[in-house]
Amino acid sequence: MQVLPSAVNESLKASIAPKPGSGDVSVSPAQQSHTVEPDAEGTPRPSSPSGTTCKDLYAIVSQVGEGTFGKVYKARNVITNVHVALKRIRMEAEKDGFPVTAMREIKLLQSLRHQNVVRLYEMMVSNGSVYMVFEYMDHDLTGVLSQTQFSFSQANLKSLCSQMLAGLAYLHRKGVIHRDIKGSNILINNRGELKLADFGLARFYQKRRRSDYTNRVITLWYRPPELLFGATVYGPEVDMWSAGCIMLELFTKKPVFQGNDEIHQLDVIYRILGTPSTERWQGLTALPWYELVKPKDVIHGHFRELFSRWLSPAALDLAERLLAYDPTQRVTALEALEAPYFKEEQPPPELPVDLSTLEGEWHELETKRERAKKRRKLENGLV
Ligand code: ADP
Ligand code: MG
Fold it and tell me: Which positions fall inside the Protein kinase domain (predicted)?
């Protein structure tokens, strides 16, 4: 396997070049044997001598994820002993060459560098597969929250919220909408650092001209009401709704709006936040699916009563501003970072460094496997 220089560079661009006349990208076998130079940047990253094969350079430790394009592995660089995550981009099923969504993620990630955005070290090509080499993160949020024996302090929760918002503020400033903020795409390491990952659905947006996008993005439970009402013209506010869902989930340890389908999703939101009206949300009736999905009856929300058990008054205020129905009223990431929850209310944020005491490494995949194991034991009458 060839190790390509850090980020996606000229060599990868050359080997994965768009087919003339089409929007597609492909890797030809001849191009895969492209020789490349190791990264000359000098930043701490796994060393990658030119010509070393992947098998030699990385020892697979375990599988940590099941990606859309293939598996995600924890691996160790045998020379530096640094752990990395290898995300395999499956090529077999791709009739049209290199998957466009993967290419989008790579190109996007290479332009990003922030302490709250997962770092893409380099790309590797081998036997028809392209691997993304990421910094390794011990857990994802879904995994950590499933560990009920472990609890974050209020100061830890504040730090996690603020790190998530700092990551989003950075992305939005760079003109990127993530479009898939959810627990399994938020990574945390044992130093208590939080990083946003999985840019498979992310898009550049133009600050002035709002483009027409698909609205089939964002996992249902984290999808904002404007998308459920059929909006195809939207902006970074969609991520802020998801961030509001994550903020509540951090405190309650459970996703708050668990709908089974689009209509039910809106219903679950209505039951907590109350039904939206044109007073609360001016553009509501102009949305494409308004007539189809509009609330049948008026429901009064009980958001504050419901969550005051877990959230402090200033945290509740912020969560409520993140979950504003009207996207134009929804707080931006930058504004959210200035909220009294961070600036005034005690305690100040503290990195959740205690995570290093949590036994095991928890990603959505291990959590799912653990649950399946428990279920099997139950079925076999072992517990
Ligand atoms: P997909 O697009 O299929 O959701 P992701 O990039 O979200 O792919 O990766 C799938 C899972 O793999 C994540 O939910 C996470 O648990 C794990 N994972 C991804 N990147 C890393 C990383 N850098 N370090 C550790 N685990 C990771
Ligand atoms: Mg993911």
Answer: 58-342
Q: Is 137 in contact with 189 (CB distance < 8 Å)?
A: yes
The larger pLDDT score, comparing residue 35 to residue 203, is at: 203
Tokens coding 317: 């205020």
Q: Looking at ligand 1, which atom is closest to the CA of residue 197? A: 6
Question: Which of 96-110, 130-144, 204-218 is most confident?
Answer: 130-144
Report the pLDDT value the prediction gives residue 178, as an integer from 0 to 100: 93
Q: How far apart are CA 82 and CA 378, in angstroms?
A: 39
Q: Measured between alpha carbons, how far is 1 from 342 in angstroms, rounded to an integer?
A: 47
pLDDT at 218: 83
- Give the residue whose CA is nearest to atom 3 of ligand 1: 67
Whole-number percent of the chain with pLDDT over 70: 80
Q: Which residues are catalytic?
A: 180
Go through the domains of the chain in sequence order and give each one's CATH number.
Answer: 19-43+50-135 (3.30.200.20), 139-356 (1.10.510.10)
State how beta strands 83-89 and 129-135 pair: antiparallel
Secondary structure letter of residue 211 according to DSSP = P
Q: Which two tokens stand for residue 162?
A: 């603020």
Q: Are 135 and 187 in contact (CB under 8 A)?
A: no
How many CA within 13 A on the CB side of residue 193? 16
What pTM did the predictor assign?
0.85
Of the candidates 145, 328, 327, which has an alpha carbon nearest to the alpha carbon of residue 247? Answer: 145
Q: How many CB atoms lie within 10 A of CB 41?
A: 10
Closest-CA residue, ligand 1 atom 14, reads 184
72, 201, 222: which to mutate for ligand 1, most atoms within 8 A of CB?
72
The per-residue pLDDT for 49 is 45
**pLDDT tens digits along 198-256:** 987 777 666 555 667 777 778 899 999 999 999 999 999 999 999 999 999 999 999 99
- In the chain, the DSSP E strands lie at 2-6, 58-67, 70-77, 83-89, 120-126, 129-135, 139-140, 176-177, 186-188, 194-196, 203-204
The residue whose CA has the least distance to atom 4 of ligand 1 is 67
**Which ligand 1 atom is the nearest neighbour of the CA of 72?**
12
Measuring from each residue's beta carbon to the nearest atom of ligand 1, which residues come in under 6 Å? 64-65, 67-68, 72, 85, 87, 118, 134-137, 140, 184-185, 187, 197-198, 200, 363-365
